[in-house]
Design a protein that fits this description.
This protein has about 180 residues and is an alpha+beta fold. It has a 4-stranded mixed beta sheet with strand order 2-1-3-4, covered by helices on one side. The longest helix has 30 residues. The radius of gyration is 25 Å and the shape is elongated.
Length: about 180
């Protein structure tokens, strides 16, 4: 038997093994690239607005902010929030519920405005980053409350009571669960 036919016989005999190894290599590479991209994406997504830029561009949000009267209970709750809370707000500048609720949130959380991240969605409720898919946003506004990076609750379109009270329940439940209560 010559060298060429031995190679062909070897390749035929191990064809499935080579195909399997190539598939495993391809899948492992795809997974590693996906993880790398996901990590880079999560670090790059920046909020679209802060309070000042939102008010400068849309008077209706500033007017809603000025008109909203915050209760003492809301202010006390916000002041007592731990440092590990973050609030992601997915809203539409075109949305009547957003025009009502976002200013109320911003007014209630004036003392901790740095924990609020504002993401403006288009009419299809999409964001250029795709972040709305990560948080499964279907309606505006959607206010996602995170403790230590984990979602503990959300307000969709309007709160059950007030935004601060609803968030207080979410954070309280998360803290109770963390303590094993």
């Amino acid at each position: 038997m010559n060298d060429n036919s031995e190679k062909k016989t070897f390749l035929k005999k191990h064809k499935k093994t080579f195909m399997f190894l190539a598939l495993v290599f391809w899948l492992a590479t795809a997974v590693l690239l996906f993880i790398r991209e996901a990590n880079a994406f999560s670090e790059q997504v920046k909020p679209d607005y802060n309070q000042q830029s939102l008010f400068a561009e849309y008077d209706v949000f500033k007017e809603g902010f000025d008109d909203y009267k915050v209760s003492e209970e809301e202010l006390e709750f916000v002041a007592s929030l731990p440092d590990n809370v973050e609030i992601k707000v997915f809203f539409g500048t075109w949305c009547h519920d957003s025009k009502r609720e976002v200013p109320r949130l911003l007014k209630s959380f004036q003392s901790k405005s740095d924990i609020i991240k504002l993401y403006s969605l288009d009419h299809q409720k999409s964001h250029e980053s795709g972040l709305e898919k990560t948080y499964k946003v279907k309606y505006t506004p959607t206010i996602v409350v995170l403790v230590d990076g984990q979602e503990v609750g959300r307000i969709v379109e309007h709160p059950e009571a007030t935004i601060a009270e609803d968030i207080s329940v979410f954070v309280g439940n998360a803290n109770s669960a963390a303590r094993g209560e």
